[in-house]
Fold each of these.
Amino acid sequence: MNVAIFTDNDFDKVNGVTTTFRAALQSAPAGIHLRVYTAASLPVETDSYLALRSLGLPIPFYSEMQIYLPRFREFLKRARADRIDLVHLTTPGPIGLAALYVAWRLDLPLVGSFHTDLAAYATLLSGSSRLGALMREYMRWPYGRCARVLAPSEHTRQLLISAKSNPDRIAVWPRGVDTTLFSPAKRSPSIREKWHVSDRRPALLYVGRVSREKGLLSLPAISDRLYKLGVEHRCIIVGDGPLLSTLRDALPDALFTGSLSRQAVAEAFASADCFVFPSTTDTAGNVVLEAQASGLPVVVSDTGGPRENMVAGLTGTVCHREDSGEWAAAIAGLLAQPQRSRFSQSARHYALTRTWERAMEPLYRAYREVLEGVSLAESTDTITAAVHRA
């Protein structure tokens, strides 16, 4: 089986989407050959990756990032030459339109996966709820043409259902983590010394885009509350984005590293003391798993998918999205010994159960079943029967 995965995220980007599909390529079983189709400013071509050189345009309300105009005929030509059997649509954006075009012209089945809540982003970044509603309506169109849609969390699945997507076609495809790359063994005393942190002044880490939709404007209030509780700390912000200058002003004591390599990010995770992720728009939050794999307790919002990638009370805490006092109290509790050591060990143990190999099984199963014409209901019945037999 040859599968074409169409994504707007070229592999020069480091985010949850590219991390997921790099893992999909590495874990693909015998009999399933995957090739990522995307667009970029520079062409790249390997056996498993095709980036066509394309014209880039700034994203509305987010000019620091670009989208690329798809070359429909060239994608079609390449898909035909690759003898593609199934098309995987991962975005409602421009490259997603190319996926629809290729599937239509070659009469191929479509599997969809949902990664980014663009409707929530549109509402938050534009300030217009009407624009967000229009985006949600639009997103029903490409995903409505997919025989199976894979959501990264039950929260996201329910979001799609509430947006009038067919629940009989939506399954959950959870995420995994590389527990070799992300490990407590990467902890670096020299990095902690450079950060000017210690057991008495712990490091509160955030990793990801430094942008409004990540809920980062709540960090200054949380930090102030911690100081009022007598909790010394230092915020370490790893990443780049349009909110950087605003946060620098609001968190004068914080350290901003900018973008780091994957290896350096792994070292940053392991060298911190607690991971704080206030996003309410993330559908999964791969970084939450990466933090736990690195031995960090996590604090996440009660809104969004990340809360499904941790165990409240065991590997971290879930807090109300807008209650800075609750966030500060939770962080203070996680930093106090002996809770810190207990949560750290539990976080690592939990992450070890969330390998990419296990996480990829629903994806590969969906490919096989869609190609064979097996519905999600039939798949669920088969799985349930197998469980009962066991």
Note: The two ends are 30 Å apart (CA to CA).
Amino acid sequence: MKHFTTEEWIDFVNRVTSSNQQNAMRKHLETGCKRCAETVSLWQKVRHTGALEASYQPPPESVRIAKAAFSTAAWAAKQQESSNLIEVLFDSFLQPALTGARSAGTGVRQMLYRADPYQVDVQIESKPEGNRLVITGQLLDVSRPDFVGGEVQVTLSNHRGGVVHTTTNHFGEFRGEIESSGDLELSFPRAEEKPIVISLRNALDRLPGAKR
């Protein structure tokens, strides 16, 4: 019995063979050839899957989440250009851990940044219940000692679609809660300049080089 090649069966499924070849291959299938029937079945499934993929439309909710996840992507892409304007003045995860807690993890991280014209004090804390982070902080405008940074919009992102907007009070303080993904990004506008973006990967993981 003459068998057809896999390439010929792919052409058969895609209907690109001549009519005479199509008839000959159908007659071959009618003989009960199991091997060729399995080959045809496989490539029919492949063709069907490809047709479904081409017409697939993601659910609106998935599109909304994806757009939210990349809402600050333009800012993040520019972060490297302005990285020299952001200076870490203090990071509690770079300090030696307390003697009694050297082998234990910590759920709180304190940081102090200089990002002209602001000095930014940030605390990240994991909530005991649920998978959420509590971020509190304060903006101080060092260029104007009489202005503490009130009414500044602060955006928190977890790099997984979670975005929270909050505004500093008249003391320059802000607070927000966001679902923990391990990562965190803070951004806030700066007058007539690019926004300030502070991005932390593994926000509550002690840094590899930190002393314990």
Note: DSSP finds five helices and nine strands in the chain.
Amino acid sequence: MRKLLFAIVFLFAFFAGFSIVGAKEKPEKREIPEVDGVYDDPDFPGIKVRVLVHKEKPGKTSTGSLVCSLDPDSSTAVHWAGWKLPSTWVYNLNPSSVPTSVGGGNLETIAKNGFADWSAPTGVTFNPGSNTTINRQAYDLKNIIAWGRAQGSALAVTYIRYYSSTGLVVDVDTIMNLKYPWKWANSSTCADSDAYDAENILTHEQGHWVGMNDEYNATSYQNATMYGYGSKGEVKKVTLTSGDVSGAAAIYLSP
């Protein structure tokens, strides 16, 4: 009887120890940081991930009223960030994630407007794919535009995955931050000063899709669509400046 009891205890200890070792050896899931920078994709060798965080402009306050402003041009060319899209690209929208103040039914038009702006200088054809309910970034071959949760002062975060050897994009996700107030003015001159304009911010993010970098020099770029800060009541990013256009064209149309 003693021998049987000893054998049972031994086997229990053996398998318990095996389970503990197995648990220790199981690799933890590695996440892409929500911080501006270039990262190696931990699960896909040869793939780089560029994270771009669109920040709110410091010191801007809301007046709670409609504001109208000019849409001045800027001729300073925006810089290439190091990747480019294929000639045809499919995107996937998440209308169910859109705040009611913007309207999920408007997302298709908002996205099409922005893609049309960037298609002209690049020659890239943007085609809508099936809608999705995804609202988080992932390398899943769905190039999503959705509202979701983002940390800190990010108005939106775009994740670009591309081959490190060629710079060709393989997956893009843009997450607009639900934390902030959003509206859609459907205008290039007037917007509500108490909210961020959905098309204004999204057009900036779509610039990252085609390969445009953020620019933070206010003297040269504050009127550019690719200026790195966004403000409430701002709609000037809805239309590209000549510097946005020339920067994008240089990526795709130059030999």
Note: The mean pLDDT is 88.
Amino acid sequence: MTRSPQVIGTLIAATWLVLGGCTTGTASKSPGNDASSGGGDDSGPSRASLVAANGYIAAGPWAGYGFTATDPGAAMITPNCAAGCNPPFTGSDFCMQGTVTGRIDYSGFAMLGWNVNQATTAGAAMNTWPVPASGGITVTVVNNPPTTALRLQLQGTDPHSGSDRWCVPLVSGQMVAWTDFTTNCYPGGNPQTPLTAGTMIQQAAVLVPGLQTTLPFDVCLIDIQITP
């Protein structure tokens, strides 16, 4: 199933750039769309995140508030972080649940994201982080059902632009090199420009890309490992 470049390029334009985080205390906002990943439910693998505390993500050199995002009508998503996360992320839970809308152009999506360089202070600026010349990243999730395709996406300060976001199919617990990320990483996407060392990124996200049929999802971020 090939996703139109025009569709992917405009998926996130309506609600992406929310500035901050979603916690039990403050909810200034922030934002941010294929592959199998580790699965489970409440009776399976632990859903407790190793890197999240009340909606704030801290993993190696990365730190920043988390959020969810979708475009109007593209998904029903909980928590809804369009105007402060409702309900707020609490404790070690960093999950999103809901249903991605089935659309003939595959334009439904849901996103669980976080800022990569942001202080804990309420309303702190979303700063950037330079992509290293070597190494990569391993992201571990609980994905229910485990057959739901996911992507890992990195984005700069202008994620509305297709040239300022890069993605890879997400396989839970499997390291990917920074150079594996490309623009338009979906099948048939063009151009697929590799991420290069020194690129400044501002956010990362786990995305559930839509299908032509309704797609339920339940995704939790468990761990992030950044390898030199």
Note: The helical segments are 5-10.
